[in-house]
Amino acid sequence: MYSKLIILAALVAISVAAPQRRLPAGSPESQAVILAQDSNLEPNGAYSYRYETSNGIAAQQSSYDGANAAGEYSYTGQDGVLYRVVYNADVNGFQPQGAHLPVEPPVPDHVLKGLEDIRRSPPRDPEFNLAALDATIARLRATLG
Length: 145
Known about the structure:
145 residues; alpha+beta; 6 strands; 28% helix; 6-stranded antiparallel beta sheet; 30% strand; 3 helices
């Protein structure tokens, strides 16, 4: 629990120390206010938060264990388009989804066949991660439609 608090404090310190973008005085961005804000932190590390601002920025995230998270955020771009990203963050990394994000192209047949051959006869290396190979094969199969 203490290590999570230390990490959280470090992230806050980094974000405060980061260079801030100067906004023109009187711009809608400089006049933005928080419309809604909620947060909850449980002793077991589970948490949730959400916020919404007057300039159209909104975000929410939750975690049942403090390590794996799911959430979304949205904002209006300079082009006037509303951008929305839904994501999961877990042992497989940060996995965003959004209509404006690029998608992985279909995997070439020979690559998938090679990985499936490795799956049928995995290396005897004790550090070989069969679960990671299975996850990669499943992800690449999904690119085929």
